[in-house]
Amino acid sequence: MFCLAINLLYEEGASAEFGSEEQGKNLRGRRKGTEGRLLLASGILFAVSLLLQLLARLVPGFGEWYAVTVYPVIVGTLGRVSGSVPFSVVEAAAYLLTAAAVWYTAVHLKRIRMVLVRALLFLTGIFFLFTCNCGVNYYRKPFSSYSNLEVRNSSKEELINLCTALTETVNQYCEDGVGAAMELKDANREGVAAMRRLGEQYPQLAGYYPGPKPLAWSYFFSVQQLCGQYSPFTVEANYNREMPDYNIPHTICHELSHLRGFMREDEANFIGYLACIGSDSPSYRYSGYLTGWVYATNALAKTDMEAYLELCGVLDERAWADLRENNEFWARYDGKAAEVSNQLNDTYLKINSQTDGVKSYGRVVDLMLAYARKQAD
């Protein structure tokens, strides 16, 4: 009886050991199966993204077709969902995902292969969202082709006339006591209204606009010297709430223009300018004209310094106060982070076929000159 009991215990122990080994094999098998499925998903996302990128770059008209048929559906669905939330979804997601990534890596450090596989899936997902919600739109027709603007080389006299007109308009707003300060909720609402109003003139800008959102922690933008940013991952227009007031209205309209599929920075600046100067809000109009003044006179300074200094001398001191505040604000964040951010932005623009890189921000003046000629006709 005693021997029988020992034999039974031995057999039970052997069985338990065998079961544990089998469970280990099953667990490893399930993990490999999971890894395989995740790698397959990553491959599919990357392949679809690459195909869309190639179609946009190589097939004439594909980018335009996508921008006017597929992208509006994305804005009307994903953009509507994220727009229903009163805070920046991409900002909240960035904080949560960073914390989750650190926690997951720490907990599963011994399973580094699984960590890397999941990281790969995340990165390909990011690439997929960027391509679908942003990347293809870089290859649509330029806004000038819709607006019937003749963008060409302009004479110095035309540039001086534009700068003079802008100076007179800004001065008039200053004399009327108009400034750019307004409550953020009012600024957000008026930004959407201004874009919708512009959409009545240019149907390509008509459609649903989710409300623009300031970052809760705008230091993240300030240290990179960013006024705002369109998030293709959540289809949101975000802006820097800490920057000087006169920057906010134009930045809001600039970022909202990306939600109509116009990704080129020179065009977004121009659309923002048009939306602001056509707004019912005096603060928005002041922001548009003063921002336009900065773009135009910077171009003039490279052409005729004497004419530039003459116009600077007649600009209202209240406008100069806004410009000085703006310069002082960004000077506080002029450092290595801003330099790296500028280089990354330059590379990003060139990758997406904006060959001028960050210089494309200055080409808005050509569009402003073309618009001034059209208005004069």
From TrEMBL:
Q: Which domain of life is it from?
A: Bacteria
Spans traversing the lipid bilayer: 38-56, 85-107, 119-139
Question: Which InterPro entries did the record assign?
Answer: DUF3810
Checking Pfam families in the record gives: DUF3810 (PF12725)
Keyword terms = Membrane, Transmembrane, Transmembrane helix
Q: What is this protein called?
A: DUF3810 family protein
